[in-house]
Amino acid sequence: MRVALISDVHGNLPALRAVLGDIERSAVSEIWCLGDVVGYGAHPNECIELVAERCSRWLAGNHDLVVCGTLAITEFSAHARAAAEWTREVLDPAGRALLSARLPFDLSGPVGLWHASPRDPVWEYVLSVPQAAECLAAMNFRIGCIGHSHVALFFTASGDDGEGTTGAVAEPDRELALSEGCWLLNPGSVGQPRDYDPRASWLLLDLERLTAVWRRVEYPVDEAAAAIVAAGLPPLLAERLWTGT
After folding, report:
1. Domains defined for the chain, CATH in brackets
2. pTM of the predicted structure, to 2 decimals
């Protein structure tokens, strides 16, 4: 089975459309979403509709949970809070119902899925090798996938106790062999990358060949940025799309 993993769409409709188009050309069986469909961008309802239509496994992220009222908005920075409050106002009932039905983890398939981490599926940013070692030891899967950090990366360990963990930022189009060891994979962000590459990111996971390939996709950043400004959201949320930060 070939699976596409996406995460951190954040209401960026132009980026989501571009990624879904790239996925369609890649002959995948399923699409899995690791959460934060809404957040910083100007098209939350449209993004929810597309993800609901296309994704067979779909998690809630911290932004989704805050918008639905499950998490306290006080945990957010000023810009994230402004975006969440705006999203609450424009979210339609159908979109709210879909978001409210999600959990921040899914352990039902061949690969463990968590929005943030196996230790804390809502809030933990896994960006260091020591963190990843503890997460690898905590998960009951040989391969796990996480989002939340907006960085395309991977961590691997020789055993299920996290021993000998290493990790790196994932290079676009590099094929990684997953046949040995334990792995924690992050597809990066569709809607707001933070690895200094403004292109939308997604992960192609082949569960038969046991390989992973990260994809980067050009999309009309100007369109997404203009929509953020037109909606009256903080200008910084538009500006950072150009730099991938």
Report:
1. 2-242 (3.60.21.10)
2. 0.97
